[in-house]
Amino acid sequence: MNKLGEHAIVIGASMSGLLAARVLSDFYTNVTVLERDTFPGADVPRKGVPQGRHAHGLLARGSAVLEELFPGYGGEVVAQSGGLIGDVANDVIWIGHNVRLANSASDLIGLLASRPVLEGHLRRRLMRLPNVRAIEHCAVLGLATDPLHKSVTGVRSCAEGKAEETINADLVVDSSGRGSCSAMWLGAFDYPSPTEEKVEIGISYMTRTYRRRAADLDGKHGIVIAGSAPNWRNGVMLAQECDSWIVSTGGYLGDDAPDNDEGFLKYLATLPTKEIHDVVAKAEPLTDYRRYRYGANLRRRYEKLPRFPENYLVFGDAICSFNPVYGQGMTVAAEEALTLQQCLRGGSNNLAPRFFTVAAKIVDIPWDIAVGNDLRHPRVEGARPVMRRFINWYIGKLHCAATRDSALATAFLQVVNLMMPPSSLLSPEIARRVWQGNRRPVLSIPSPATEARRNSVSP
Length: 459
Prior knowledge:
This protein is an alpha/beta fold. The protein is built from 13 helices and 18 strands. Helices cover 33% and strands 24% of the residues. β4 and β5 form a beta hairpin. The longest helix is centred in the C-terminal third of the chain and has 24 residues. The termini are far apart.
């Protein structure tokens, strides 16, 4: 393959940065990843990934893309670190709208392992490529630019213990995450900043890791509980390497779970089902409690900018970051990597507008899923047009029918796993099954939450 340039730089060694670097390695003679953090010697949490100590899972679409870019990646995580590959629709319990979706075999294959393991394996695979290198302890201070030609020519950086230097590049990709400085850097270069869309949710969750026993959860690989009325609390318990469970639970707008045994168990008992509570009550803790707070869904509309410099891109969470309880971030980054690959096959000219246009369409779906579901909460502020209210009502009806209809459950999980567009749930066949399913009683799950909901509407 003919190379598009001698050198590409990726700012940030997050999952998205590693994926971007993998794609760039096919098109540039050399690729350098600049990371301000230190890479740990073992697969343990690192300072630069604050959410790395909390629950992660790779959705089916993300798992498929990583296999495409790094063949054998999933098997390597399983064989070398004890991760688990499983059927998302059959091996995981899904609770939404206070009901349990029917389990059944599907082709939705996901990968379960801790964030440090997922990232560590990806980083090691990337660093085996002969034209890729990483520089740790390296802070990017700004962009090196050519104002005359309105292009980026590299970055101004400072590695630990060294003076500031300029590293030249034919392409710079900002994958530094939600805290990206791109808007500020563009402003210094006399380019407009992107408009931002923000939906404040005030999500906070508490996480702890426990010993996993074979009989826990009847052998399932995990359980995911989406927040719903009356208390809007969510919870997740996922199998991890080393026979462990990672458990995270929390709520919206400051509804924090306590960081002590008694309070944590009481909080878990208020979820729509007590499966997580019952495992945690008997399990051996392996870590202390850890809290993570996330203020708002945030999207930067780079695709709407009238001007953008040549030889520069923004990527991953630096474009859009979602409520982390939906587990979409890594998969969206994987999809963006494939988009970058396709754009680079068309050459480097006019790269940013081409990439941002397609990336916006990728982001539209998970953004609508996350924000649409968050706006079900009555105290979350945001526009609720008629169509959004209808979709939320319809998805509730679909959940009710999917307590018995595994085909409906799988159709919904195909959307959640970003394998199918949300519009697929409005097909005549799916709508017919939803209508038929709501003519039968819902298979309810007795719990404090559902009892409170029932009592709240009793005469």
